[in-house]
Amino acid sequence: MEIHQTIVRFIDERKPFALAVILHTEGSTPARSGGKAVIEPDGRIHGTIGGGKVEATAQKRAIEACRSKKVCVFDFTLAGADAASDMPVCGGKMRILIDPNAVRNRPAYADAAQSLHNRQRSILLTKVVTAGSVEGVPPSAEVKGKARASLSRVASRECPRHTCIGDARVQIEWLKDGAPPPEPLAEQIDACVRKEQTEYVVDTAGGTETLIEPLIPRPMLMIVGGGHVGQALAVQAQLVGFDITVLDDRSEFTDPGRFPKGTRTLRGDIPALLADSEIVPDTYVVIVTRSHQHDAEALKACIHSPAAYIGMIGSKRKVALLRADFVASGITADRFDRVFAPVGLDIGAVTVPEIAASIVAQLVAVRRKGPDAAGRIRIQP
Prior knowledge:
Layout: H1 3-12, E1 18-26, E2 36-39, E3 45-47, H2 52-68, E4 72-77, E5 93-99, H3 106-117, E6 122-129, H4 151-154, E7 162-164, E8 169-176, H5 186-195, E9 199-203, E10 208-215, E11 220-224, H6 228-239, E12 243-248, E13 264-267, H7 270-276, E14 283-287, H8 292-302, E15 309-312, H9 316-328, H10 333-336, H11 352-369
Parallel strand pairs: 11-12, 11-14, 12-13, 14-15
Antiparallel strand pairs: 1-2, 1-5, 2-3, 4-5, 4-7, 6-8, 6-10, 9-10
């Protein structure tokens, strides 16, 4: 379950918990800003903020917060002396909020959950407000105005590892995409949305720390063909964060029981289904039907779409032949060459799970690094 849905469910079921939120990170860390976990009074955790020592520390602090109902912020340095110690040696730093009073902000978390469910972008602002200046920020870490502060300045060696700020308030604000941002943070929010990255803002004079978090829906993977490769691909792609839709013209291969929970399946004429589908820039399409004719028909139906990725299974010979046919039909060579075909990274995959793994690895590469860094196999005309 998506973490904001989990927060709302715990609130509605009146289950006590403390919410752990990664406010900021610097350097190499096991999780990034915006990571969240719901922690119950007995330490059970839902979600993750990176595991290991940092998560164990968060669980301990959350247990205390559930008892005291006091907000806590702590800084964790992953700088163990050597590899033999039990301290993390990544070298990064993390600043984490423990909020046992998340029930007060249910409307914002509910809006966040609904916007992601509806595949709509939005912004979540998490603001920690103290009575005076932000505790734990040493005098040398002065930040003028609303400028961004790096964690090395906020959580320097003089800063206590654990800072209890029980009189603090945690304010959560949800902003619909396109809504006018609050003026004091308008510039940072605009930049955050453009870059699709979290921002951490410290105002020492006003005594606030604010996490600006863009809520980006999970990318959609459309698997065209629900056979063995399609089924294996659905399982592995869901694990790395894709929402899955499977298209096929055969009822047995659109049976939801063949796919992970939450997979959407559509049965019908494949080109027609693709033509009726909303393929947008965060849509990924993988064509793995039962024949090269069906593959070609599916590709023709989506090749001009703005999809982030279109991949088609097939041998180099098959792809070369299809390329020639497409170019002869009026589709430009440049347009065809956007397609990842043969699909997947060249890792020597042989079995169905290996083929699925090679495709998922390529999807992740395109998503995180862009198409030029995704190991495209070039077919010479």
